[in-house]
From TrEMBL:
Biased composition (Basic and acidic residues): 247-260
Taxonomic classification: Bacteria, Bacillati, Actinomycetota, Actinomycetes, Pseudonocardiales
PROSITE patterns registered for this protein in UniProt: SAM_MT_TRMB
Catalyzed reactions per annotation: guanosine(46) in tRNA + S-adenosyl-L-methionine = N(7)-methylguanosine(46) in tRNA + S-adenosyl-L-homocysteine
EC number: 2.1.1.33
Binding-site positions, substrate: 146, 178, 219-222
Keyword tRNA processing: yes
Function as written in the Swiss-Prot or TrEMBL entry: Catalyzes the formation of N(7)-methylguanine at position 46 (m7G46) in tRNA.
CDD domains named in the record: AdoMet_MTases
Metabolic or biological pathway: tRNA modification; N(7)-methylguanine-tRNA biosynthesis
Residues reported in the UniProt entry to bind S-adenosyl-L-methionine: 67, 92, 119, 142
Pfam families: Methyltransf_4
Organism this protein belongs to: Pseudonocardia spirodelae
The name this protein goes by in its record: tRNA (guanine-N(7)-)-methyltransferase
Keyword Transferase: yes
Length: 266
């Protein structure tokens, strides 16, 4: 079994995930033992080093996309294979998913995919430089459906501001979810962030939502959502650091309203 990452003492930040120890299958364990030190690493180690050296990760300078929550790695590997001139980093805490992605990387012969285990928000906050990412993907994050758990949802106003700051001008934030309430929350949050604007390549449809881009693979998980009657929503926004007029509407994330920066005091 891979060793678990250790939590920092006195760190009380609410996280969007729960790290559970899960046994790897025989094939996953074999992949982990052979490949983790080749293509994988720990967020804690990167943070402790204090720098984000993308050239050291890939041995080249290329556009870089960060994915938060790669799950079992199906979409991750397909997108990396479709974009050989783009480097991809997947950040995940679920070891079986990381091991499965290692297997996919090996089977596809990918050289542009790396894996990190740990807290992606910590990585973005502590070491990823401002304006350094060409893309940030978050597909089907944990919806935390119970109201008392909405505070654990990843896409909140503070995260949207952080994500926008790490994208280069024109860099894309791509979100997808099959939970209607979370989709509405995501849309309110990103629409209210002044450093993000809708990606003009994907205009709104008659229903007021952007469509799934043809290059995002449809997974078995997504097929099940359609069968169960849950619409899948994609949100594609790009970073715009020109400092337009802030949106003074209020954003509600988990049952509490957060005034936008620049909103008049009440």
């Amino acid at each position: 079994m891979p060793e678990q990452a250790t939590a920092r003492p006195h760190d009380t930040r609410i996280r969007s995930y729960v790290h559970q120890r899960v046994r790897l299958s025989e094939g996953q364990q074999s992949a982990w033992d052979r490949l983790w030190t080749v293509w994988g690493g720990e967020v804690d180690d990167v943070v402790a080093g204090g720098t984000w050296d993308r050239r050291a990760l890939f041995g080249r300078d290329a556009p870089l996309v960060l994915e938060i929550g790669s799950g079992m790695g199906e979409t991750t590997a397909l997108l990396a294979a479709a974009e050989p001139d783009v480097d991809h980093v997947a950040v995940e805490v679920y070891e079986p998913g990381l091991a499965q992605l290692l297997m996919r990387v090996e089977q596809a012969g990918l050289t542009n995919q790396r894996l990190l285990r740990g807290d992606a928000v910590e990585l973005l906050t502590r070491v990823v430089p401002a304006g350094s990412l060409d893309g940030l993907r978050i597909f089907f994050p944990d919806p935390w459906p119970k109201r008392r758990h909405h505070k654990r949802r990843l896409v909140q106003p503070g995260f949207a501001a952080l994500a926008a700051s790490r994208l280069r001008p024109g860099g894309r934030l791509h979100l997808a979810t099959d939970w209607p309430h979370y989709a509405e929350q995501m849309r309110r949050v990103v629409a209210a962030e002044p450093s993000l604007r809708p990606d003009g390549e994907f205009p709104l449809g008659p229903d007021g939502w952007q469509g799934r881009p043809p290059w995002r693979p449809v997974t078995k998980f997504e097929d099940r959502a359609h069968v169960e009657g849950r619409p899948v929503r994609d949100l594609l926004y790009v970073a715009d650091h020109t400092g337009g007029t802030p949106d003074t509407r209020r954003v509600t994330d988990y049952g509490r309203e957060h005034p936008r920066p620049g909103s008049p005091p009440e």
